[in-house]
């Protein structure tokens, strides 16, 4: 257990969590993960997007079963989202080899380069690249540097390390992702484990309202094109529309950027993001259709869709197998549907995929207050280890 806590301390740099894709903390972590894996007998592979794969040997050297999660985090995020799945996955594999020796089939730990879509408005780029589903033209910039420049710079800095370079890495036999719940249900129901039946449908957009910069004191109200006035009216209507739609729909405007952002200047532009989610594709599309109609009616407003991920059903067989293991190990569990998006959504279109959740204290996530008790972290690691042992000896 101390190994996991020590690793979490090492990989979270003891300060606020800003492991944005391809930045210095991200680079240090992928580099340290490569060294960690190689010290424990893994073959390290890095692909052109900076996904790190640690392949631990099997008695038969065929396709591996896999576990892992994403190395990046949201801006000002928590210590566990993504990173727990990478480091907990590493500890689960170590536990397995120490207890049972080399399994029949190899086991792969994947540290996906990017999932959150925070530094650039392109999300799930690591697992999408791995599965060959990344649409390059959607890699939007974030003023000043393109995704591709940041990617090339980072991967080049990894490249002098002694690992196998690979354009593309073959898919595994299965994928199991260990993750914090990022919601309140396990804590409220006093369950130690969540077994995930499916994951939410999610669309994201970038909306820009265009106006005209002008003097705050001399421009008559009827003659100004105030981008903030138009945008704030639009946002109010959007929130009202969301409130009228299905009760499990979530609608979030998380980012707002104003230009020139000066107190005595009428705003010339207001750019904001939309994150909307629902448990079914139909519910989401019903809302999105009405939302886009509303946006089209708004003067001087442009909309870019930056993400579309359909609702995902995960593997029933792997869930059933993990439920039997949890029962055997006396771990209280419940099945649940995930309102958070995960790399497992991308992987599940290609290989049987399942997720194991552990409780988030007070359900908080995507914030520095994100916390899971060490004993709960360990329960997830131990169940994952048993699950991987079963899969790698099947
Ligand atoms: O936003 C999400 O649902 C995930 O944490 N990327
Ligand atoms: Mn640092
Ligand atoms: Mn997240
Ligand atoms: Mn995550």
From TrEMBL:
Zn(2+) 1 binds at residues 70, 81, 179. The keyword DNA repair does not apply. Allantoate binds at residues 204, 264, 277. Zn(2+) 2 binds at residues 81, 116, 366. It comes from the Bacteria. Residues 205-298 form the Peptidase M20 dimerisation domain. Pfam families: M20_dimer, Peptidase_M20. Keywords: Hydrolase, Metal-binding, Zinc. InterPro entries: Amidase_Cbmase, Bact_exopeptidase_dim_dom, Peptidase_M20, Peptidase_M20_dimer. Binds 2 Zn(2+) ions per subunit. Belongs to the peptidase M20 family. This is Allantoate deiminase.
